[in-house]
Design goal:
The chain has about 240 residues and is of the alpha+beta class. About 35% of the residues lie in helices and about 15% in strands.
């Protein structure tokens, strides 16, 4: 699909699969039998499109699509594909979108971490409960879907339980690698089995050929290749 089509169709919860050309990325694809070596979660507020991912240099970050283009980051990924999140129930879809935004707000700024020990985990240590957050309120503006019943329920959370949960979350100092972050976000929205460690997921796990099964009667579309529009200043 052309970039204009991508920007029109992309929505919160969709996945962006990417392929880089550096040697580390090539080795990763070789050892994981994958066409991709990086994955990001897409978020959208009004007409603004954001990439939520984690990279070695910056850790967990939220990047506006226009910055992704202006800074030429897209040129690091000659191959990009979109997988759309499909949920038929509009109310459920709205709830999932809210939870994904709140997860992003809670985790922006955490470090990038990829260690061999992570891959030995079978069960999850991630607390999938998403807490009310000042940063979530900042990101969830009036144009972003809000599940009113869920938000009211959050407001009824006692100060005592909130303080305890916040302390538990802050004690989890581990960072994320890209597919672990996406898996954890999906788990927070109830789309993946919370008992399975997020570290068990690699970029290839979310590719079309793996046939990942989601919960809540959700599914991912086929991969749609994206043809980036070359920024004028990068043209030869």
């Amino acid at each position: 699909m052309l970039e204009e089509e991508f920007l029109e169709s992309v929505d919160t919860g969709d996945l962006l699969l990417l392929r880089a050309n550096h040697i580390g990325a090539k080795l990763q694809r070789l050892f994981t039998f994958s066409d991709y070596d990086h994955i990001a979660l897409m978020l959208k507020a009004s007409t603004e499109v954001y990439i939520f991912d984690t990279v070695y240099e910056n850790g967990v970050q939220l990047t506006n699509w226009s910055d992704f283009k202006k800074r030429g980051i897209y040129r690091d990924y000659p191959v990009a594909s979109l997988r759309k999140l499909n949920i038929k129930d509009p109310e459920l879809l709205n709830e999932v979108k809210v939870k994904l935004w709140e997860f992003a707000a809670q985790h922006i700024g955490k470090k990038y971490e990829l260690g061999i020990g992570k891959f030995w985990r079978n069960s999850s240590i991630f607390n999938s409960q998403v807490l009310p957050s000042p940063r979530a309120s900042y990101l969830l503006d009036s144009e972003t879907p809000v599940a009113s019943e869920d938000r009211n329920a959050d407001n009824r959370t006692s100060k005592k339980s909130f303080k305890k949960s916040a302390e538990e979350l802050q004690s989890q100092e581990e960072g994320f690698f890209c597919s672990e972050l996406v898996a954890a976000a999906y788990k927070s929205a109830g789309l993946l089995d919370a008992s399975i460690a997020s570290t068990r997921y690699l970029p290839v796990s979310f590719s079309q050929k793996k046939g990942l099964t989601l919960l809540k009667d959700a599914s991912l579309s086929h991969e749609h290749g994206i043809a980036f529009i070359e920024e004028e200043r990068f043209k030869n």
